[in-house]
Amino acid sequence: MIVLYIVTGILLVVSWKANATKTRKALKIAWKRFARILPAFGLMVMAVAIVLPLIPPEFIARSLGMNNRWLGMTVGSLLGSISMMPGFIAYPLSGILLSQGVPYMVISAFTTTLMMVGVLSFPLEKQYLGTRPALLRNLMSLLIALLVAVITGFAFGEIAL
Q1: Fewest CB atoms less than 10 Å from the CB: which of 31, 53, 124, 127?
Q2: What per-residue string of b and e applies to 58-88 under the rule 16 or more CB within 10 Å gives b?
Q3: What is the pTM of this model?
């Protein structure tokens, strides 16, 4: 993540050197947009912070570690779609799930939908994108996540042709 910050900083300096007026104007626009979505984003983060501790990792592992991988993938994608957590929590959680015997394709469905599908963020998306684009984005993300999970199942030998 630090590399991303460094690259962004370098590109900002390059932009400033190329045209300071346009860069200043772009930064003002970015700040105004950020300030406009900050209250809604803050409420969303607070909701996640309250709900997340209520769902223990053991419960998630039990729910996802079923013998039926297809059902596990479905449950994982549903849990991932209605949950919301940052990557620095999601990826270690995936490691915990893997150590508890949850199949790779189920973990893939869970983490991919967790990052891409936003049931909790839908009201915010609807507000800024509109209902149809927000719905379409979430539906496409769900389909892509399920495709990624199936490909992961093939790659790790959990699904045979």
Answers
A1: 53
A2: eebbebbbbeebeebbbbbbbbbbebbbeee
A3: 0.64
